[in-house]
Structure formats: C-alpha cells, structure tokens
User: Fold this.
Amino acid sequence: MNRKLAKELTAAGFPIQFYQVGHRFYPHETSSGWSEAAQEHGVTITPYELQNHLHDIEDGYYCPTLPDLIEAGGDRFARLFVETTFWTAESRDSEKYALADSPEEAVAKLWFALHRKKS
Assistant:
C-alpha cells in the first residue's frame, strides 16, 4: 500500500483496532528521525517501534492488512478476485466494486465506496 492510500484511509477514519508487529505504517511528514527510505516506502512495525515509537505510529499513516480491510467491509463485502493483472473487490450490492493493481488497494477502494457519505 502506498503512502497516499494509507493517508486517505486515515483521513476517512478507517478503523484501527490495534497496532501489531509486522504491520506497516508511513511516518507523518513532520515526524523527525525517520530516513528518507522510511518516509517513502513505509516502516514495518517491530517490537522496538511499538515500545519506542508508538506516538509516531499513531500520528502516521497505518497500512491495514488485507484481512483488516476485508473485516472492515463487514457483511457488505462479497468477494475478491483477480483477472489477468487486475484485482476486483465486490460488495453484495453488485453496483459497488473496485478495481486495482493489488488486492489491498482494491479492497481499500471498495471500503471507500461502501463508507462514502450520502449527500
């Protein structure tokens, strides 16, 4: 998952239950002490980060795992499949679906579609 999508999920209020070792996040742009590579590609959370950088993790942009994304879709999530190189995530409402280059991105985009506020 790229920084832009992780930032959009955070801004939209994607539910984060708890931070775990092995998950990824992007440090906030104003966080100091992170390398350029960490800012650009994200950081895999280790026990060290959980103990010493929890504030940075909470202020940054969390990258939910595929199971987290599917769970957040709840009973409205129907299926995820790949055709050639495109992933498709579908809801039970066949009019809501999302296409993307990765399964995480497809399900994240479907989450946006399912949680978009009606005007």
Helices lie at 3-11, 36-41, 47-52, 54-59, 66-73, 103-115. The longest strand covers residues 77-83. The beta strands are 24-26, 43-44, 61-63, 77-83, 86-91, 97-100. The chain has a mean pLDDT of 91.
